[in-house]
Amino acid sequence: MASENKPSESVREDEVLARLLQSAGRRNEPPAEVYEQTLAVATDAFRRKTRRSGAGRAWQWAAVLLVMAGAVVIGISITNLPANDLASIERIVGTAQLKSHGQWRTVTANQRPIRRDEVLRTGANSFAGLGFGGVSLRVAPSTQLVLESTRRIKLISGTIYIDTGANAQGQSLVEVITPAGTATDIGTQFEVRYEQPLYRLRVREGQVRLVGSGQAFQSLAGDELVIDADGRHHRNSISPSDPEWGWVASIAPDFDGRTVAELLDWVSRETGKEIRYADPGVKQNTAVTVFNTSVLNVAPLETLEVLLATTDYEHTVGEDGTITIRLRLHH
Q1: How many domains does the chain divide into?
Q2: Is 300:136 a contact under the CB 8 Å cutoff?
């Protein structure tokens, strides 16, 4: 029997959104005009998404498109965690489990922290986003890992992505340990994939040092380093905006800035796409244009679409992937 909370395909779009907003609970009340404007934009985006993806995925999209004026993201501050609690679970898409005291238990976002030496694993089609000592740690499907300390991650198998933040200033914040070697970041965004005996390191920003089996490698932004079963290494190139990074954006933390300029910086960092401006004045004005709206659990490009629609700016994505920002033409 289908769950009574899951709408049938005949449920109207506005009913799906209404249920979603109701399930989100109480929030601080925004100004009525801001709420109505944001709801209209969200509804329009929701309708376009469900028409493209089919009615059967309407509820799935609605669960992602949680848009609210003045919404508050509920989370656990990593700085306030007890000594043995190393990370907060900020987002889960699908299912994730923690192994503690020999038993596996399914966990949800914001349910409880991950403790030292617990094993986290994601399902075959699942993702998890963690807050880890001020670092964004994202976990791909079919991955198992252990957090050994506030800066050491043991990757048992699978794929993880780490963003130490744009303001890391070349500091080493995280070590990723595998039998193939230990990867140490230097203010960066990078991905480690380990499926014994194959190892792959991709660097999106900054640089990463890998030490293992008597060898040391230095990888810079745009590098892909692969170590095969025979211990031979191969280097390739990967663009910061390559579609292979797409899974990372799907589990990105919510945008928490206030201005259009901060939004554009965030979107560029999460997608690897370059931001361009129609003229210099547009760029200057984005720094002082403030949002009264928040968007939760929405991918970066869709966040950009929804939030810019509440301003006087619009964007286009060129064939080369660059995003151009210009003033909206009013008729």
Answers
A1: 3
A2: no
* Residues comprising the chain, all counted: 331
Show the DSSP H helices in the chain as ranges: 13-23, 32-53, 58-64, 246-250, 260-271, 280-286, 300-308
Q: What is the Cα–Cα distance from 266 to 257, expressed in whole angstroms? A: 9
Q: Looking at the structure, do residues 186 and 223 belong to the same domain, yes or no?
A: yes
Rg for the chain (alpha carbons), in Å?
A: 21
Q: Which domain holds residue 52?
A: 13-68
Rounded Cα distance, 300 and 9, in Å:
27
| 189 lies in the same domain as 315 | no
Task: Kindly state the helix (H) or strand (E) to which residue 259 belongs, with its residue range.
Answer: none
**Alpha carbons 324 and 145: distance in angstroms, whole number:** 39
Q: What is the pLDDT of residues 189-235, one digit of tens each?
A: 999 999 999 999 999 999 999 998 788 999 999 999 999 998 899 99
State pTM to two decimals. Answer: 0.76
Assign residue 100 the CATH number of its domain: 2.60.120.1440
CB within 8 A of 21, min separation 6: which ones? 66, 68
**Domain check: are 214 and 156 in the same one?**
yes
pLDDT digits (tens, 9 = 90+) for 108-166: 998 889 999 999 999 999 999 999 988 999 999 999 999 999 899 999 999 999 999 87
Going by pLDDT thresholds of 50, 70 and 90, the confidence category of residue 176 is very high
3 occurs within a structural domain = no
CA atoms within 13 A on the CB side of 58: 21
Residue that the structure tokens 């990967």 belong to: 238
Q: Which two tokens stand for residue 246?
A: 């797409």
